Amino acid sequence: MLAWIGTICGILGSILVAANSGLQFVGYCFFLIGAVSCVIVSIKRKDKAGVTLWAFFTIVNLWGIVNYA
Q1: Measured distance CA(35)–CA(4) in Å, rounded
Q2: pTM for this one?
Q3: How confident is the model over 5-43, as pLDDT tens digits?
Q4: DSSP state letters, the chain
Q5: What are the C-alpha distances in Å from 20 to residues 16, 17, 36, 60, 65?
Q6: Which of 17-21, 23-27, 47-51, 64-68 holds the top average pLDDT?
Q7: At what angle do helices 24-44 and 48-68 cross, to 10 degrees?
Q8: Residue ranges per domain, the chain?
């Protein structure tokens, strides 16, 4: 279930940021939720490459939120 939350949040985040509709901040928040969800799933699956990728995306999403705000 958590993997699907990450997937759906990632899709919504990408649509909101790409649409340039004034909802970029919300899009970054969805990206962040999706990335954190995927980090947790990757940790549970002992997927080191996944943990690395999603942890990096989490940091970049936080950076995006800070820069946008």
Answers
A1: 11
A2: 0.89
A3: 999 999 999 999 999 888 989 999 999 999 999 999 999
A4: -HHHHHHHHHHHHHHHHHTTSS-HHHHHHHHHHHHHHHHHHHHHTT-HHHHHHHHHHHHHHHHHHHHH-
A5: 7, 6, 24, 19, 15
A6: 47-51
A7: 160
A8: 2-68
The distance in angstroms from the start CA to the end CA of the chain is 30
Show the tokens assigned to 68: 């946008």
Cα of 29 vs its chain's centroid, Å: 7
Residue that the structure tokens 């995006």 belong to? 64
CA angle (24, 9, 61) in 5-degree steps: 50
